[in-house]
Amino acid sequence: MTHVVLVLTPGVHLLDLAGPAQVFSTAAGLGRPYRLSYVGERERIDSAQGLPVQAQTEWPGDLGPDDLLVVPGWRCPRGMLPPPFSQQTLARLAAHHAAGGTVAGVCSGAQALGEAGLLDGRRCTTHHELQDELARRFPRAKVVRDVLFTADDRVITSAGIASGIDLSLHLLAVRHGPAQAAQVARSMVVYTRRNGDEPQASAVLRYRSHLDDTVHRVQDLIDARFTEPLTLDHLAAAAGVSARTLTRVFTRATGGLTPLRYQQTLRLERAEHLIAHGTTTETAAHQVGFTDPRMLRRLRSRTPG
């Protein structure tokens, strides 16, 4: 069971909080082992939008490396002010990361991570109105602009508001594969669109920075069923275009990948994850949809690293 703890402060933005909460609660409803807790330094948390939120003041006592701490953003009417967290709360964030856990900040939540010492030397981002101040306040941080989120050594930050959903879907894709993230996204009636500018991001992220709705629909289908045989004609019919048109727009949107190559990339990435966790090449090949393990070996031999 993975524990997701949302760390709340007065003035919290509701969507910064609700986006990640909805993603992980939806995943739990689909059978994934997630439970959510909401902690704060007071029981009543008045949100920026006026709706009060109930929090628990006692932290869960059984947090481990697989668990996740998320700091939603709060209203910053005059730019970034010192985060309204005590040193004890900031120390908890730092200690969880030091113990191997993942810590995430949505919008101005990145500042809490900075005050906890987690942004030094790492890529990070925040809402575009706060990026200059984040860079000024934490000069050792590598502030990345014009991206939805960043991930660097189990420190995850997002641009704010709705991008907390993208951050959370990314974490699902990393932990459970793109099909799970796509299933949750479809349940929430959102695309599994992610930032495509991160050099270490997964294939689902690298090829999702375009704005072509037809290609996004096809990618949603491939993400959900990448282990199955998917013909070009089937994908084109699902998108309501010809096979020739799909190949043309898909290649243009993804920077050169055909739908088949995109599917192979997802299979290869998932297979590498399985192999890294002790699965044999033959078993991994079959689990990701290759009928012949030699195909997986050929793809691995062509991929640097």
From TrEMBL:
Highest taxon, organism lineage: Bacteria
Residues covered by the HTH araC/xylS-type domain: 216-305
Keywords for this protein: Transcription, Transcription regulation
Task: Tell whether Transcription is among the UniProt keywords.
Answer: yes
InterPro entries documented for this protein: Class_I_gatase-like (IPR029062), DJ-1/PfpI (IPR002818), Homeodomain-like_sf (IPR009057), HTH_AraC (IPR018060), INH-QAR (IPR052158)
Q: Could you identify this protein by its name?
A: DJ-1/PfpI family protein
Species source reads: Streptomyces oryzae
